[in-house]
Design brief:
By secondary structure, this protein is α/β, with parallel strands linked by helices. It contains 15 helices and 27 strands.
């Protein structure tokens, strides 16, 4: 039993002592045991200390999904430092901002990003040194000193409640990203909640193709198995055929994905489905799962999907449909153990069952605050309750239903239009495989909904026909003013549709505007 009030290094070492020879990470053609992970991360910690990294110093990690990512991540934390994962898809200006804002003292980076690091490293005043690691070709010689260090890691007095383990920068819909400060207890308690809610058990192997710099993959896919004696298999990129082969090779039992991944996987050839036979269930998070996509996946693969949710600021898991229990389509389930969720209005008043308001969270998983932003931190809370910015409601059994992000809601002639409700209708159209609805300013109506859709290959459907379908299935104020047919939708590294990019677009190709 893991002590949720301990420090992450203490639990990592205890887990390694109990499972020294058990496989911890399965990456490409190699398997790393818990003892090897423990030894290698101790070497990283000792080397960081020798190079002047002290308790509380931020250290950045710019690396693909791999065993090296896990070793460096945990080594940074064992050094008493604070890991700052870097989004691999950010441009150099955005990366520079994050490293400067965090005041990163050191940077570990995969050799594939060497040119990028060379371009920005001299502009980061706080950086004392950078260390490269090459995963596919074996570890870079410059990394060997860190990897092979036989010295003892620093002995630290860690306060799990107060000391930071990670700063995770959110993507930021407006302005600069903010760094969520997560303590040892935040992450450790959330891993315990995940194990209980997902009923993870000895022998489980979690397949991690979601990027490990992202909160969902880092906590559920990497930290949870490392802290609780399970295994995980990191995959560097999302390729359905290669992913399926990896699942078959390692006998993965749990698959973590976002809705767009499940949608793409529906197109796998029939002969590859057998490779998924070991998977007990899939988990979906990061964005609303269209009911039609969930039903199609479960029917074709014979694997249940449990939808859940949680923001980075909550470490991140707050709720999930109960594994093995009653699931409700379009619901993100029940609060995970130790976490409370209530619905509040704009004034901070708790709302009754079935009323739509902002989802607010309280529990040991809630962040310490936003890095260097005390005013923003204060605005993010109603007392002890973190304001998630998500709109939703509870039913009479306590199940949570997400309506939309607060900022995504569209107000048409004073009436609220929730994009997810429109998207659910669009996904029911047999020719549509992806849909996203955003608001656009309008002089007459205030705002109007605009639908961006991707059609099945070869589908002979016009934008006007899609809009006519909406007219048959939605209220007049909910019907998209314009339908834009697109070859694809913009997504981030986690596969989440980037609505902010859609809003930024000017003249829309292949659109039809029907007044």
């Amino acid at each position: 039993m893991v002590d949720a009030n301990a420090s992450i290094p203490a639990v990592l070492r205890a887990t390694a002592r109990c499972n020294p020879d058990a496989p911890a990470v399965c990456f490409t053609d190699r398997t790393v045991s818990f003892a090897e992970i423990d030894q290698a991360s101790d070497a990283i910690a000792a080397s960081l200390a020798e190079h002047g990294i002290e308790k509380g110093d931020p250290v950045a990690l710019y690396c693909i999904n791999s065993d090296a990512f896990a070793i460096i991540y945990t080594g940074i934390i064992k050094a008493g430092a604070v890991v700052v994962p870097v989004n691999l898809l950010l441009n150099l200006k955005e990366i520079s901002y994050i490293l400067q804002d965090a005041k990163a003292k050191a940077l570990f980076y995969h050799q594939a990003f060497a040119d990028s690091v060379a371009a920005f490293r001299d502009g980061i005043d706080s950086l004392a040194f950078c260390v490269s690691v090459g995963v596919e070709q074996g570890y870079d010689p410059r990394f060997e000193d860190f990897w092979q260090n036989q010295a003892a890691p620093p002995s630290l007095d860690i306060d799990p409640m107060q000391d930071l383990a990670a700063i995770l920068y959110t993507s930021g819909t407006t302005g600069h990203p903010k760094g969520a400060m997560l303590t040892h207890r935040n992450l450790l308690s959330n891993s315990c909640s995940v194990v209980a809610a997902m009923q993870l058990e000895e022998g489980d192997v979690i397949l991690v193709v979601l990027p490990m710099f992202h909160a969902f993959a880092a906590t559920v896919g990497m930290l949870t198995p490392l802290l609780h004696g399970l295994s995980f298999a990191p995959v560097a990129r999302f390729d359905p055929a290669g992913l399926s082969a990896t699942i078959g090779a390692v006998g993965a039992t749990v698959f973590l994905g976002v809705p767009s991944m499940y949608n793409v996987l529906l197109r796998l050839p029939e002969e590859q489905l057998a490779q998924w036979s070991s998977v007990r269930f899939g988990v979906s998070g990061g964005a609303a799962m269209p009911v039609a996509v969930m039903q199609q996946f479960e029917e074709r693969f014979g694997i249940p999907i449990y939808e859940g949710d949680g923001p980075t600021e909550c470490s991140p898991v707050t709720c999930v449909n109960p594994v093995g229990g009653v699931t409700k389509p379009a619901s993100v389930g029940l609060p995970v153990p130790e976490v409370e969720i209530e619905i509040f209005d704009d004034a901070g008043k708790q709302l009754p069952v079935a009323e739509i308001g902002e989802l607010c969270v309280r529990g040991p998983n809630v962040m310490k605050g936003d890095w260097n932003l005390p005013e923003a931190t204060a605005e993010s809370f109603f007392g002890e309750w973190l304001r998630t910015g998500d709109l939703g409601y509870k039913d009479d059994e306590g199940y949570l239903f997400m309506v939309d992000r607060n900022k995504d809601m569209i107000i048409v002639n004073g009436m609220n239009v929730y994009p997810r409700m429109v998207e659910e209708v669009l996904y029911q159209h047999p020719a549509i495989i992806e849909a996203a609805v955003v608001g656009e300013s309008n002089a007459r109506h205030g705002e109007v909904p605009i639908a961006h859709v991707v059609l099945q290959e070869g589908a002979d459907v016009t934008a006007a026909e899609v809009r006519a379908y909406c007219l048959e299935n939605l209220g007049r104020h909910q019907v998209p003013r314009r339908v834009v047919l697109r070859p694809s939708l913009p997504k981030n590294a986690a596969g989440k549709i980037l609505k902010r990019e859609l809003r930024r677009e000017g003249e829309l190709a292949r659109g039809v505007d029907i007044l």
